[in-house]
Design brief:
The chain is α+β, with helices and mostly antiparallel strands. It is built from ten helices and 13 strands.
Length: 396
């Protein structure tokens, strides 16, 4: 056996080495020494020059570069898609939504407009234009209550004066709309009367029309009109017909208009007719802004005319229903003659040419060269009244 420390050969069974004095009963140290000795006794590999990478090693490195490139490209694509998704999810801007809502209003697609403007207000509760657009859309579907509610809500949130002003306008529009609906219900049973009136006017059968205005059918219309609070017009197959309250003791409480309208306003050419207890009145001419404006020709018969007079005919220009400028004041006699008196008015007032003190009844001379022969005067007893179309003047 050998010593674990110095490696000297010792006797078998000895406890100490005779050379170095080390204990011989330590197997761990002996084992470590033996392992060290065995390591040094192993043959060592000879030195070799480093080798250049072969084709396989190049391919490995190129594959790694390709993989890295693909990873980078994938990251770029994913980032781009994420940016696109973010843009798409962002949705239209407020301005784009307003433009979209206004296009729906122009196309009369009110339901879509309501949805768009409401979405805007969900995003921006203080967007004045959205409140305006939403109110207009509600009016488009005849929901005036909702229109007023949204305008009031908008004003409370923004205190914008335009919203307050629009709210006041819608309140007036609602009153007009409510009257219209009520009137439609009132007139539900007299559509045929409007059709008949328009038929007579279209054919120019005014004498037959005046006879019809004495019938029970026409009385049904008047009974219905008594429930109204406003003028009413109807579009018939023969044209537009309206009925208007005038409260005249000679030609009745109501007048019929047959002619052109623009947005429920009399505008263009039209006939203006009234009848009451045998007295009839017919004016035909130009209308503007819901009143006679321009040339008018009036033909009337009433029990206040002379016994020999068939019709009184007045021709001339009007301004807001009043005679203005040169006017021919004519009387058609039973013998076929017509007496014409050229007179002049200034906004419904007679232009007085002279004053006859001897005439206590009608001292104001308004025409010096009238009558059938052109040598007759025309006088009047009242120059303070305004002369014009019935329903628009104090005298006619």
């Amino acid at each position: 056996m050998f010593c674990n420390q110095c490696g000297s050969e010792v006797k078998s069974g000895a406890k100490f080495c005779t050379k170095c004095g080390a204990r011989l009963d330590q197997p761990a140290q002996q084992d470590a020494y033996q392992q060290e000795q065995s390591y040094y006794q192993q043959p060592q590999p000879a030195y070799q020059q480093p080798q250049q990478p072969g084709p396989r090693d190049g391919r490995k490195k190129s594959h790694i570069g390709l993989i890295i490139g693909l990873i980078i490209a994938a990251c770029i694509v994913i980032a781009g898609m994420a940016g696109m998704l973010f843009f798409l999810n962002r949705g239209p801007s407020i301005e784009e939504r307003l433009e979209m809502g206004n296009r729906y209003l122009e196309d009369l697609d009110y339901d879509e407009a309501i949805e768009v403007f409401q979405e805007i207000l969900d995003i921006d509760p203080k967007c004045v234009d959205a409140y305006m657009g939403l109110a207009d859309a509600y009016i488009g579907v005849e929901d005036y209550e909702s229109a007023m509610d949204i305008l009031e809500k908008g004003y409370d949130k923004t205190e914008d004066d335009d919203l307050k002003e629009r709210l006041e306008e819608v309140e007036v529009e609602k009153e007009s709309y409510d009257r219209k609906i009520r009137n439609e219900k009132v007139f539900a049973g007299v559509e045929d009367v409007f059709e008949n009136i328009a038929g007579y006017c279209e054919a120019g059968n005014y004498d037959e029309l005046f006879e019809y205005m004495q019938s029970d059918d026409y009385q049904r219309l008047l009974d219905a009109v008594d429930e109204l609070e406003m003028a009413y017009c109807v579009e018939t197959s023969h044209g537009n017909v309206g009925i208007y309250e005038v409260n005249n003791e000679v030609f009745g409480n109501y007048m019929i208009y047959y002619g052109d309208y623009q947005d429920d306003v009399r505008e263009g050419e039209g006939d203006w007719l009234g009848y009451f207890e045998g007295n009839n009145y017919h004016a035909r001419g130009s209308w503007k802004a819901d009143a006679p404006n321009g040339y008018q020709e009036v033909r009337e018969w009433s029990n206040r005319l002379g016994e020999t007079v068939v019709y009184r005919v007045i021709k001339g220009d009007t301004v807001d229903g009043l005679w203005n400028g040169p006017v021919d004041w004519c009387f058609e006699e039973m013998d076929g003659t017509t007496e014409v008196y050229p007179v002049t008015f200034e906004e419904g007032k007679w232009v007085v040419l002279d004053y006859d003190e001897a005439d206590e009844t009608s001292p104001y001379i308004v025409c010096l060269t009238g009558g059938a022969s052109g040598d007759r005067k025309m006088t009047t007893d009242d120059v303070d009244c305004t002369e014009g179309i019935m329903g628009f003047a104090t005298s006619y």
